[in-house]
Amino acid sequence: MAQKKKIGRSFSRWVVGGVGLALLALAGPLRAGALSQPVAPVRPVTDTYFGQTVTDPYRWLEKLKSPEVQAWMKAQNDYTRDYLAHLPDRDALVKRIEDLDSASTRVGSVEHLGSRYFYLKLTPQDQTPKLYVRDGLDGAERLLADPQVVGGPQVIDGVKQRYTISDFYPSWDGSMVAVEIAAGGSEEGTLRLLDAATGKLLPDSIDRIWGASVSWDPSGKFFYYVRLKKLAPGETPNDKELDSTACLHRLGDGSEKDTVVLSRLTTPGLGLVPTDQPCVAIEPGSSYAIGIISHGVRNEATLALSPAGAVAQDAPQWKKFVDVDDDVTDLAVQGHEIWLLTHKDAPHFKVVHLDLDHPDIAQADLAVPASDLVLKGVTCARDALYVDAAQGGVSHILRLPYGQKTATPITLPFAGSAGGLSANIEQDGVLMRLSGWTHAPQWYAYDPATGNIADTNLEPLNPADFSGITSEEVTAPGADGTPIPLSIIYRKDLVLNGKNPCLLEGYGAYGISIEPGFDATRLALLEKGIVVAFAHVRGGGENGEDWHLAGQKQTKQNTISDFISCAQYLIDKGYTSPAYLAGRGTSAGGITIGGALTQRPDLFTLAICNVGVMDILRFESEPNGPSNTPEFGTIKDPDGFKALYRMDAYQHVKDGTAYPAVLLITGANDPRVSPWHLLKMAARLQAATSGKKPILLRIDSDAGHGIGSSKTQRDLILADQTALLLSLAGKANAPGSPAGPP
């Protein structure tokens, strides 16, 4: 399916964590207390929505490029960096986290095409992943693409750009690979082509790329991709995400020769709107091309069909055969057959099957019925259809051989989360990256001929010692009586006396699930006696589509209430208490932590909002806002406005309230949540709080939404968060040896 520009997060160490701002050159070492925190002038702007007046005291901070805003940002950032730099334990935490992060090699996004294995690898010496290739699993590893080489060098305003690989797309025979490169964590970048045998960079270069969704023709001579629009005279950056197009690129051509094969303007019969994103997918052995139309961040897609040959000749014959009301969220194709993942009358999802020669979804066969498992994805290999599923956070992989009626589970090495599921129609079996809260990840290959699942040895076992750590899965009673799943990770010898620092993470949007995942740097927190917990709140996908819908738009309060309920559970059971508890939300999780902060400030000693949405009433005024209205609602209708106003943390800050400490984190190049959300919230909280705990704004110029952040950026922000929590909880210099838990 096409990439959607969600403000969502992945719970991978590669795309979450650090941020910061670098158009603000950071000050050098500063004397503690040498700086003062600037006060933001109040300049109220009043809006009226359906008869209700709303006042915005800091609208002026949305003008990020104005000299006044830049100066205020710099002063805020300098103050925050000085404050954090002088926290007890901070330097020791930086070292411990960096040691843990640099002790291992991580491998992500493995693709097996032809005889070659392509994968992103982050070595101890690297700051961001590079693309490698092997000719067979036992073949010698070769570096194929270093993002700093493929992307640059380029200097903007005197600053050398740092590049990351956003994604890569090998051709079906493995001879070529398209690589998506972006600068400074911005995500928007350029598509380049490499010869997989020689590593030679080809002259083909395509700009305006953000989620290219490349699909190669089996001939290897051309491919389809998604491109952002070129702004016309009079258009602004707010228009750049509208009317993206699916294009055809022939190898060797300049991008100006690429032709549009699916778009709102060229294919009016499909009823696309400006926020829709179309892409084209083709598979070897199939005579059909599938047009996939994503509707903003909505999970349910529209699907259209055309003879592949007609699309290749720039004369597509698109006919819609699946619409949003069919609730299809994923698909897999083999020849003239297609399998569709849908939650139509099945909140835990089911898989149906169609013949593309007669694509009537009303007559679809049931391939995999709904069950207690939550089905998450489908993919076709040469031997069978594979279905990614989960129950209680534990992954299950189902296999349905072609021509058979019953899917059977694959026996996995241990109970964990199978991320990175990878298969293709020209290879047997499936690849997966299996990990758990205390189980280091490994890439496994399932061989259907033997039924065995074996370590590929693509990723060395992480050496971090979690033998002194335990995890448990519990449920917290929600405000309305709904059991809320809660994962808790802590030291085995920890005494549950209510005096343990605790970091509670919550998200709850788009039907995205927080799944058991290994993070070696988490050990630095656990060694210090910090309890790490994950609240699986409504709005996520842990319990299926009903769970998602129960935390969306008018029901968004459930997301916030569930997080508060999980915090209360941790307090009631003696894991922690309000004087020791930190809550954290990232991206769309900003709504979660923002709501908890404004509704129950007494529950926390610290609230951390990482690149989060704070003023969602204004979200539609930025480029990525309109595409997110399917998840949160729109200010253009009365019910949408009411829902957005209720979930807007900025609008619910109250003067004279003793707020806990707050750490607000943003990046200058964030394309998903504008930095002004965090700027405005910082100004409002600093003016409103009657407490003495700090309200800190941490900003960095060489980062965006956390996707593409460097290893050092992630490590430093984790150290800052941890040192701040320990200091507030009175646990700085608490027991815990760098050698491991006592």
Summarize the structure.
Helices cover 17% and strands 32% of the residues. By secondary structure, the protein is of the alpha+beta class. The protein has 3 domains: 45-100 and 464-728, Alpha/Beta hydrolase fold, catalytic domain (Rossmann fold, 3-Layer(aba) Sandwich); 106-212; 359-461.
- As residue ranges, the low-confidence spans are 8-33, 736-742
In helices, the fraction of residues equals: 10-25%
The CATH topology name of the largest domain reads: Rossmann fold
Strand content: 25-35%
**How far apart are the termini?**
47 Å
Question: What is the domain tally?
Answer: 3
Structural class, judged by helices and strands?
alpha+beta
CATH architecture of the largest domain: 3-Layer(aba) Sandwich
Tally of DSSP helical segments = 12
The strand line-up of the biggest sheet is 33-34-36-35-37-38-39-40
Radius of gyration, CA atoms, in whole angstroms: 25 Å
Tell the overall outline: globular
Q: Give the biggest sheet.
A: 8 strands, mixed
Would you write up a description of this structure?
The strands form ten sheets. The protein has an eight-stranded mixed β-sheet, with helices on both faces. Strands 3-4-5-6 form a four-stranded antiparallel β-sheet. It has a four-stranded antiparallel β-sheet with strand order 9-10-11-12. The radius of gyration is 25 Å and the shape is globular. The protein folds into three domains: 45-100 and 464-728, Rossmann fold, CATH 3.40.50; 106-212; 359-461. It is an alpha+beta fold and 742 residues long. Helix 2 packs antiparallel against helix 12 and helix 7 crosses helix 8 (589-599). It has twelve helices and 40 strands. It is 17% helix and 32% strand.
